[in-house]
Amino acid sequence: MPTVYLTYPSEMVVGVFMHLKLASLILTLACFSNSHASLISNQSNPEVIYGTDDRLDVFESSDSLMKKIAKSTAALVYNDNLSQDGDNLLLSDKTLQEFGGLCTSERFVKQMTAARCSGFLVSPDTIVTAGHCIYSVNSCDYQSWIFDYANTTEEKESFTFNKDQVYHCVKILERQKDEENMNDFAVLKLDRPVTGRAPLKYRTAGKIPDDAVLTVIGHPSGTPVKISSAADLRDNSNPIYFVTNADTFGRNSGSAVVNSRTGIIEGILVRGDQDFTHSETAACNVSVKHDIDGGRGEEVTRITNIKFLTKKRN
């Protein structure tokens, strides 16, 4: 069987095809994948499990600091997946099993896959995400940023949001998507200040310590927000990005990568290893698993690359 290589479709490509409903087909093809030789783009795909799977829903975590950071984490969703429910908005989409053909033995297979990318709040009206998640301000017209897309007390099958949880971008304050040096980030201005949650603290100078322990908070495979802890820093040598062994998946792109000891944001998750592989015996897809030191690792844009943020602080 020929190898089919991974991509999660770039925001620009999805924007072209979204009304033709091809997104699910592209994602299904993505399940037989490798992020560095792709059908569309090779830069939008962090994923894989290293050692044990450390992903937790918010209600499963006992880390109060990371749960607070999760509160300031947002999901990028298509407006087509939102419908009016009285004064609120109802979010709907396929489950991970329906969307990606996963085996029933996989974790989170019954959870919704509505998030297209992840992001996090850095000021009352400013979100940071990956550069490949948004290509132009025109995409703001058909997408929304939603907070509290999370299982906070139990695993839920449906999600309803009020107006204070749903926002829209109106301007790209700074963006890089460089194919040569691999810089990948975007800073977005929202339509109004976010209420009920605090902007996150982030590094403005210097370099992440070599012995750092990391936590990634975002939306793996589009599911409700996950806290993925106990990740090691593998390679700190590149000036643009560093490499970790966090357990992350496609659509985790844009997630905050947090220093677990300090709660400071060190970077933005942007790329990674293969996520799913096909099980011939089970006739469905399973997560790729590596030893703790195996695989290529997950690449994280250094948040100090963002001049808009460093100038604002200094």
Structure description:
The protein is mainly β and 314 residues long. The chain is built from 5 helices and 21 strands. The strands form 5 sheets. A 7-stranded antiparallel beta sheet has the order 10-8-3-6-7-12-11.
Write the layout of secondary structure elements.
Blueprint: H1 11-17, H2 23-30, E1 49-50, E2 55-57, H3 64-71, E3 73-78, E4 82-85, E5 88-91, H4 96-100, E6 117-123, E7 126-129, E8 143-147, E9 159-161, E10 166-167, E11 169-177, E12 184-190, E13 213-218, E14 226-235, E15 241-244, E16 256-259, E17 265-271, E18 276-279, E19 284-287, E20 289-290, E21 298-302, H5 307-313
Parallel strand pairs: 1-20
Antiparallel strand pairs: 2-14, 3-6, 3-8, 4-5, 5-9, 6-7, 7-12, 8-10, 11-12, 13-14, 13-16, 14-15, 15-21, 16-17, 17-21, 18-19
Helix segment tally: 5
Strand order of the largest sheet: 10-8-3-6-7-12-11
Please identify the structural class as seen in this structure: mainly beta
Span between N and C termini?
55 Å
- Taken as a percent bin, the fraction of beta residues is 25-35%
Average pLDDT taken over every residue: 82
What is the rounded Rg?
A: 18 Å
Summarize this structure briefly.
The chain is mainly beta. It has helices at residues 11-17, 23-30, 64-71, 96-100, 307-313; strands at residues 49-50, 55-57, 73-78, 82-85, 88-91, 117-123, 126-129, 143-147, 159-161, 166-167, 169-177, 184-190, 213-218, 226-235, 241-244, 256-259, 265-271, 276-279, 284-287, 289-290, 298-302.
What brief labels describe this structure?
7-stranded antiparallel sheet; 11% helix; 314 residues; 5 helices; disordered N terminus; 32% strand; 6-stranded antiparallel barrel; mainly beta
